[in-house]
UniProtKB/TrEMBL annotation:
Residues 48-177 form the Nudix hydrolase domain. It comes from the Bacteria. It comes from Streptomyces gibsoniae. Its cofactor is Mg(2+). Gene3D superfamilies: Nucleoside Triphosphate Pyrophosphohydrolase. Its EC number is 3.6.-.-. One of its GO terms (molecular function) is hydrolase activity. The lineage of its organism: Bacteria, Bacillati, Actinomycetota, Actinomycetes, Kitasatosporales. InterPro entries: NUDIX_hydrolase-like_dom_sf (IPR015797), NUDIX_hydrolase_dom (IPR000086). This is NUDIX hydrolase. SUPFAM superfamilies: Nudix. Keywords: Hydrolase. Pfam families: NUDIX.
Amino acid sequence: MGRTPGMETRGPWRRHHREPLCTTGRLVAYQDQVTLPDGSAGHYDWVRVPDQVRVAALVGGSLLIVEQYHYLTGTMWQLPGGNVDPEDRDSGAAARRELAEETGYREGRWTPRGALHPLPGLTPARVHLWSAEGLTPGKPAPEPGEADLGVRHVPLAEAVRAACDGRIGCAASAALVLAVGAAHAG
């Protein structure tokens, strides 16, 4: 792995060199040699990972919530979602694929709800937010790492409470639940 030369100015920061520290099939970790906003020399470590999607799927007045054990954080409630893969046309295609894989629900009416930067000091990756209604049930096809995934039908009001009290532990999921809850309250 070699250094990437080239000066780049980003707001009050200036990058002088970029060096990849670790590359796997899932991520690249970098260290940039920078001039900090105060003018001193330093380095900035960051990670490139794929963008993600989360889907607020409303079925009969309830949100589909997945419960799954995550290797790093333990069991968590969150909305269905996953990576935006290179073969996806866009985040909407990834959202449709992930919802069908994890819950079996397909088709329906889809609404983009924006995107968030969940860890802006660590990665430029975004989480694209979608909501869907009028879905057709089907058979889920979870990936091997999702064999323990359970799908709950949680009434929207209860899902909003779960986002507020921390039962929904994924920040992007909690933000999307609150946005959908507010849209349906008004």
